[in-house]
Amino acid sequence: MRACPIKRSYNIQRSGAFVRNLSRPRSSASLQRGGIRPATVVSQVPRPAVDRSFSMHATQPLYASPSADSHSVGNGDYLPKIELTPIESAICQLLDDACRWIEKHQPQPDPERSENAQVDYRDGWTCEARIAGGWVRDKLLGQASHDLDVSLSSLTGYVFALFLEAYLLSPEFLQSDLAQNSSSPFHAHSSETNQLVGHITKIAANPDQSKNLETATAIVAGLSLDFVNLRKEVYVGNSRIPIMTFGTALEDAERRDITINSLFYNVHTRLVEDFTGKGLSDMRDRIIRTPLEPQQTFLDDPLRVLRCVRFASRLGYIIDQEIFSCLKDERGAEIRLALSSKVSRERFGIEVNKMMLGPDPAGALALIEKMHLYDVVFGPPPGEIIRASKLGHEEVERAVLLLAAIRTIRDEHGIADIPFLSNIKDDEESQRLLYYSAALLPLRSAEWEEKKGKWQWAGACVILRGLKLAVRQTREPLICLWKSANILHRPTKEVFDPSNEQYRGRFIPSLGSNKISDRATRALLARHPELHRTDIGVTIELRLLWSLISDLTLDESLWSSSTPSAHEAEKALQSHIAESYYDFYRQLEEEGLLSRIDERVILDGKEILETLQVKPGALMSIITKQVEAWQFDRDLRNHSIEDAKTECKQWLRSEWDRGGIVPLDERAAKP
């Protein structure tokens, strides 16, 4: 590997004056629309010299200025100020000092660790470090950020990380203010500098999956730092396959996903740098825009189209119309093909999961639909075998409106109107599962051939193969909710209809034709073995809520047109269908069954066999289910466990002797 020295087309001067164009002053209010805190106007003011001593309290003024060349480092009269925490200030000073140390000593990386890499130190060679992207954006928005992406002007990320490690072991560092000052975060470890940098991990580039840069990751004084070189794309001959090489800060900024992520923080000058001239203004105006033409940006890394969705829904920003236009015409087909074929499914899943955990998953789903990305994101990946027809996307919109209406009811009227909201009111994980379930509604009746001859709900394919999300954290809970929507379907309509007694047997395994009370039926439904999965975070409340939403979504009589409205959603939540769910839950509560859902069956298999003097066999599941029904048909809170067991055994023996539990003819047929 060779480090590629470059002639940078910009020059951040360390002294001199800046001039601001004050012809169009902007108000503080206009800046704060984007969540950015305004700084003071700088006009004909000498740039302050950077104080390289460490201070727990001093924060450098962070005004961006025009650079010496034709590219502006700022784009407005009012520019924001970043307040550094003590550890962030120390990291910036450390990076600055490390760059100066590298320039002075011009070391070579360890051949074994760097695979014989050599740095070509030419005349005038310099090393500059900038913090890039998300950290700058979040700091400008006043949000905490713990992951720093460090961009290097003339070294690869891995080589710089090795040099940083070497600097921390050098006499210069041990004598520096960072190591000597007792208020420095580095001071306590100055005699054990090998603890300051954790294991350095090299992450290779993978162009086939649109990961175009080699990066290095290390933990420095407790913060996660990613190191990577500034980049540009070079095309050789007639090839349209780009080669990534060292670039300028402007070239790197232009290759970022969106303008608000293209900002830099220069650790040497302590300035925010906006090389595209759009990042700060787009933050002010709350716009998601690509630095270059959208098609070029998206084809460079197709995942960026999903990042546009995520940041728009996270920040409440508007996506630039040119992005929508690009995805609607013939360019959109090429981008969607690249998204489904060039991006690893793991990267897919990470972005989508962040949307579902974000502040506005409903907005994210709406944008995915509007940008014609729905089937790419929430459809089974190419090559999977799917059967049965899919529903339309309007069902997703209905479900999302219902979730929004539930939130409105909860916020304005409290949880009394929807009684089972109490345990899922502010649960972020439940929100994630509900919105995933809504997103997968079009696949409710579709099946996927997981293995030859083994068919599974097609939504499981999307989660497992399409988004590569965890089985226990996502796939199993979503399958459980999907089954709930089938088993708990309008619970007080079919299950408790006296003229439809056989229906209970379809809902409750091993019940067969036995008649049990309504109270016992409610308990057994709540304890259904395929649904009662508190071990994966699926509570009875969450199951009922999703089953309700699914029922209301699919009932055409509740929706007047193909464009559902929030008013229709609120009315649906007051319908007789909704009331059946509310009544079901209230009865569980009033009968004291909610607190008993986790109870073990009062008699185990051995006790049942001893009581009836029978051998183990196929009848055991039916007998056990009847014991369970007996148990929950009674309030046993005032009974000791032994008294309850004795009473149950007496009942079981009596019922068995008179030909109950299992009819006599079936006992002979099922030994």
Automatic annotation (TrEMBL):
The keyword Coiled coil does not apply. SUPFAM superfamilies: Nucleotidyltransferase, Poly A polymerase C-terminal region-like. Keywords: RNA-binding, Transferase. One of its GO terms (biological process) is tRNA 3'-terminal CCA addition. Residues 129-289 form the Poly A polymerase head domain. Transmembrane segments: none annotated. Coiled coil: none annotated. One of its GO terms (molecular function) is RNA binding. It holds the Pfam family PolyA_pol. PANTHER family: CCA TRNA NUCLEOTIDYLTRANSFERASE, MITOCHONDRIAL, TRNA-NUCLEOTIDYLTRANSFERASE. Belongs to the tRNA nucleotidyltransferase/poly(A) polymerase family. This is Poly A polymerase head domain-containing protein. It comes from Meira miltonrushii.
